[in-house]
Amino acid sequence: MNFPTPDLAQLNEWSRNTLSEHLGIELTEVGDKYLVGRMPVDRRTHQPMGLLHGGASVALAETLGSIGAALQVDPTKKACVGLEINANHIKGVHSGYVVGRATAIHVGRSTQVWEIRITHEETGALVCLSRITMAVIDLPAKPSSAA
Length: 147
Fold this sequence. Notes:
HotDog_dom_sf; 1,4-dihydroxy-2-naphthoyl-CoA thioesterase activity
């Protein structure tokens, strides 16, 4: 990473009052071009048949990929926004936690590609494999204040 990385407490604070907080997503590890987080499989993340909802898996994947991408740019000059996300749902989960590990595949000037592998915390079984493409955009220039 080229810029100081916030600690996990600061990163988790970014999720206050968001979908991530509602789903119980918690970031657990951050490193050079990777990010790990976990999410409960419970009433908040179930679909009607009592399985982990595929949309909840995608929300976890997008959360991890987006935050991971944001950590690769100068936050005073650039932002990262999602262009495309896909997910292959491999195995159903009824309970416990799933763990997502987002790993940078490509970190470029204008785009980033991240792979997110979501596994069952207890068994290690692959639950979902996702990939997100992020656009790196310029933040609007702040007007200079006249003296």
